[in-house]
């Protein structure tokens, strides 16, 4: 696919596309999460039901960073491995489909590139959430000052095994899984087609096979800001579910937020979220493109 870093030039490299996606994704995920962690902490505290000050205010803005150090690299690597692999397979299916159609028609049966990117990004997010959700649960509870550190949160959850059993601990670690998927899939369905579309436009303008890391970062920033703003209500809901003392359904939590805080609560933290993800999109996708392009040049 022309819009993928794994273009025809990749075949000149001894590093497989799988390995490039794995390593570039791990580097990108760790870089962005550590760089912007303080903003993420402030956003979490703004969305907490106990209020910004009670959740820690501006104190201890690196609380919970330990879980990010462990979870960022594998989560991001899993996302990009799935994304690139899924996208390549969709491309092959689309080409085979159009080849069967006389004249190469790509309307009724073929998948457009934008749909390819939406489906591939959605699959990547679902896979990444296997690592991301437990990391988020531990991180956000530490950020909201429920426990002093990531390890303290983990110990607290594991200590409940005698009361709720192993299955209960597992469910506690994956609390908010459903709403996280509900947030991440729409987010990536907006962000990645925009990012890929802007990269394709730039390649047409420059007649180059790949965009630079700087260009990729700029496009990632714009795409991330748009997606972040549109999915803020889902992010608020996810944060409240993960911070709640008892398990609740997404529907009951939605009703509770509406009744107790009003509709404006669903936009809580939109400023920090858009700023954080816009900057994060630049760092994340810029770093990914830089690492991916660098490995293409290795022969």
Describe this structure in words.
- By secondary structure, this protein is mainly α.
- The protein has 11 helices and no strands.
- Helix 2 packs antiparallel against helix 11 (270-296) and helix 7 runs antiparallel to helix 8 (213-230).
- It is globular, with a radius of gyration of 20 Å.
How would you name the oligomeric state of the polypeptide chains in this document? Answer: single chain
| Strand percent estimate | under 5%
Distance from N terminus to C terminus (CA atoms, Å) equals 21 Å
Pairing-aware structural class of the strands and helices? Answer: mainly alpha
Helix count, per DSSP? 11
Whole-number radius of gyration? Answer: 20 Å
Residue windows where pLDDT falls under 50 for at least 5 positions? 6-13, 106-111
Give a quick account of the main beta sheet: strands, pairing sense, barrel closure.
Answer: none
Helix content: over 70%
Spatial shape: globular
How many E-type strands? 0
Mean pLDDT: 84
Features:
299 residues; 0% strand
Q: Topology, pairings included?
A:
Elements: H1 17-35, H2 37-47, H3 65-100, H4 113-143, H5 150-159, H6 161-173, H7 177-206, H8 213-230, H9 232-243, H10 250-261, H11 270-296
Helix pairs in contact: 1-3, 1-11, 2-11, 3-4, 4-5, 4-7, 7-8, 7-9, 8-11, 9-10
Would you summarize the structure shown here?
By secondary structure, the chain is mainly alpha-helical.
């Amino acid at each position: 696919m022309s819009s993928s870093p794994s273009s025809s030039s990749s075949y000149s490299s001894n590093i497989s596309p799988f390995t490039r996606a794995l390593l570039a994704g791990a580097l990108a995920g760790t870089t962005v999460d550590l760089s912007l962690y303080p903003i993420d902490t402030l956003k979490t505290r703004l969305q907490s039901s106990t209020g910004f000050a009670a959740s820690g205010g501006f104190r201890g803005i690196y609380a919970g960073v330990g879980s990010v150090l462990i979870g960022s690299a594998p989560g991001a690597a899993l996302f990009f491995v799935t994304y690139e692999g899924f996208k390549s397979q969709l491309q092959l299916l689309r080409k085979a489909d159009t080849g069967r159609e006389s004249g190469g028609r790509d309307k009724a049966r073929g998948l457009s590139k934008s749909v390819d990117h939406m489906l591939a990004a959605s699959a990547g997010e679902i896979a990444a959430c296997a690592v991301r959700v437990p990391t988020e649960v531990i991180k956000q509870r530490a950020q909201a000052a429920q426990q002093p550190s990531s390890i303290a949160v983990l110990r607290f959850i594991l200590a409940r095994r005698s009361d709720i059993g192993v299955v209960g601990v597992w469910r506690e670690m994956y609390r908010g899984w459903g709403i996280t998927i509900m947030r991440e899939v729409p987010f990536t369905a907006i962000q990645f087609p925009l990012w890929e579309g802007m990269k394709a436009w730039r390649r047409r303008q420059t007649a180059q096979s790949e965009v630079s890391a700087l260009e990729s970062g700029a496009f990632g920033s714009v795409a991330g800001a748009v997606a972040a703003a549109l999915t803020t209500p889902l992010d608020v809901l996810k944060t409240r579910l993960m911070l709640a003392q008892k398990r609740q359904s997404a529907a009951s939590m939605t009703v509770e937020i509406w009744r107790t805080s009003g509709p404006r609560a669903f936009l809580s933290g939109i400023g920090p979220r858009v700023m954080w993800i816009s900057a994060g999109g630049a760092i994340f996708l810029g770093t990914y493109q830089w690492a991916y392009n660098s490995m293409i040049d290795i022969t």
